[in-house]
Design a protein that fits this description.
Distance between the termini: 121 Å
Strand order of the largest sheet: 2-3-6-1-9-8-7
Oligomer: single chain
Number of helices: 14
Shape: elongated
Strand content: 15-25%
Number of domains: 5
Number of strands: 18
Helix content: 40-55%
Length: 560
């Protein structure tokens, strides 16, 4: 049998393979079944033990090729520190070039062509890739030997999808990735992803010869130009190499209409309207609903960019209008926003300014009083019209300036008020030292920061009203710190009293009760330390004190 004739049924040629050293052109030869008299005489044990080190020895030289990696154990190509069992032989030679015919080992019969591992996620790169199985002829001389060639080139199919947009006549077509392309063959078809291809270009590989079908599916409103299905068979002709297949599917995209453009612009405005409503809903305190509206807005935007015809836009318009109606309905059900504390502060300042106007009247300054009342009216209008925090803050600052102006006219001396504040700040400094002495370092540092804030506020104060507010704030802070220090002292005294009662139980011979009382005292002391560390409020300190006092009273009542 002519070996070249037999091999002609394999439409495969050698491809370049990579090994651990420079890239070579080679062939993987795998004897997968060997049942012969001469092989039965082999004394090689199976499985072969892992070698301590690999020594290939001199290259095996045969006519026309050399062996670059023999059958058996070898260093792992991907990790030279490990060994792997190579169940084939890598051959190198001039006849194993990219695109050359496959040389045969003798007279052979092709018995199988396909993937080495068709169930792998990527059969093209798994195992030996494309393989050809052959039976060596003349069994009376060589026995029955099945040989596999691996790392061969697959059949390649290249597909491109193109389109053009129809105006008066369709201009030159360009790549368009909107279509879905599928290729089916007798065996597994692999999608080629390396190297990456532009949208509209696709690559496929298959190993088993036979008829294949390529199909394209165009979405609306694309109009296919020509066939959408192509059947092909890279048939093998003796003496002729099989070639790759290249297929082009074309389509026409109808030109957009004026209605399309106008509807597009209208939808952009509607989606922006929905976006604004999300902000209003959030301002009404409905954060969850606002997030849902924003998610809808993003989905509508994506649908707008994906729309290709007027019906798509009309459907989208109805959905956006429904979403807008739902958002507006939410606002009608929303409770009124809570009063802004800043508005309350401004109202108090206006009341203070009105009081100053009365003082100006009493001081014989009616013109100045009238000017102040005019400013009060303007400030009141500004307060009604203000919609943002920054507007309210600016208004507050303007009223404070007006208060300072009125106090200047009245000749109010702020030095006395400032002296009162300075005396209070000295009390705060003393409390910082008291906290330090009590071992409350964190509380002392916090109060020192607060003291710095009070100092800055005193420097910035320009009106009696500001000084009065500052005095109130400092006085409140002092009361809270003194109360906390007083409670902590009371708790310490109560703990000492509880331990004294425990000593009295010892004197009475009730040692177990005394021990329990001391354990309670230790636990209360630990709880006190935790309250101090957590900067707990006054109520928690008071609760702890009450618990200790109750225990002391109960223990005293039960003394023998």
């Amino acid at each position: 049998m002519n070996p070249q004739t037999v091999l002609a049924v394999a439409p495969l040629v050698i491809r370049i393979i990579k090994i651990a050293i420079p890239v070579l052109v080679g062939l993987l030869l795998i004897p997968i079944i060997a049942v012969a008299a001469i092989l039965n005489k082999s004394t090689v044990a199976w499985p072969v033990a892992t070698p301590v080190e690999v020594g290939v020895g001199p290259d095996y030289v045969a006519t026309g090729w050399s062996m670059t990696s023999p059958y058996g154990w070898r260093e792992d190509i991907s990790d030279p520190s490990q060994y792997e069992f190579h169940d084939g032989m890598d051959l190198d030679g001039e006849m194993f070039c990219d695109g050359c015919r496959v040389p045969t080992m003798g007279d052979v019969e092709i018995v199988g062509i396909g993937w080495d591992d068709p169930s792998a996620a990527d059969p093209l790169h798994a195992g030996a890739g494309v393989v050809v199985d052959m039976m060596l002829q003349h069994p009376q001389e060589s026995g029955t030997i099945r040989i596999r060639y691996g790392h061969l080139k697959p059949f390649l199919v290249f597909v491109r999808t193109r389109s053009c947009q129809e105006t008066v006549s369709c201009p030159g077509k360009t790549l368009d990735g909107a279509a879905d392309v599928t290729v089916t063959c007798a065996g597994e078809v692999v999608t080629i992803t390396d190297p990456p291809r532009p949208a509209g270009e696709y690559g496929f590989a298959y190993a088993e010869p036979g008829a294949c079908t390529a199909t394209v599916t165009w979405p609306a409103p694309y109009l296919p130009e020509g066939a959408t299905t192509f059947v092909f068979d890279q048939q093998i002709v003796e003496g002729v190499e099989s070639s790759n297949v290249a297929i082009t599917f074309d389509a026409i995209l109808p030109a957009p209409t004026a209605d399309f453009d106008a509807l597009w612009d209208e939808l952009v405005d509607l989606i922006v309207r929905l976006w604004d409503l999300a902000d209003v809903v959030r301002a009404a305190g409905m954060d969850t609903e606002a997030d849902a509206i924003l998610a809808e807005k993003d989905a509508f935007r994506d649908r707008l960019h994906a729309a290709v015809d007027v019906p798509d836009l009309e459907t989208l318009k109805g959905d956006v209008e429904d979403a807008i109606a739902d958002a507006e309905a939410l606002l009608t059900m929303a409770p009124p926003p809570p009063p802004d504390p800043l508005r309350g502060d401004i109202q108090s300042l206006l009341t203070e300014l009105e009081r100053l106007a009365d003082e100006l009247d009493a001081a014989g300054e009616p013109g100045e009083a009238a000017d102040v009342r005019d400013r009060i009216a303007t400030f009141a209008d500004d307060l009604s019209n203000a919609t943002t925090t920054s507007e309210l803050e600016d208004l507050r600052d303007d009223i404070l300036v007006a208060i300072g102006d009125a106090e200047d006219v009245l000749g109010i001396d702020l030095d006395d008020e400032k002296e009162v504040v300075e005396e209070l700040l000295e009390d705060v400094e003393d409390l910082v030292d008291a906290l330090d002495d009590a071992g409350l370092d964190d509380e002392a540092n916090d109060l020192e920061d607060t003291l710095d804030d009070f100092d800055d506020a005193l420097d910035d104060a320009t009106s009696r009203h500001e000084l009065e507010d500052l005095t109130t704030e400092i006085t409140r802070e002092i009361a809270e710190i003194e109360d906390m220090l007083s409670l902590e002292d009371d708790i310490e005294d109560a703990l000492e009293e509880l331990r004294d009662v425990a000593d009295r139980y010892d004197d009475a011979g009730e040692n177990s009760i005394a021990e329990r009382l001391r354990e309670d005292a230790d636990e209360y002391e630990e709880e006190l330390e935790n309250l101090v560390a957590d900067d707990a409020d006054r109520e928690e300190f008071a609760d702890l004190l009450e618990d200790i006092v109750d225990d002391v009273d109960d223990a005293r009542d039960a003394l023998p």
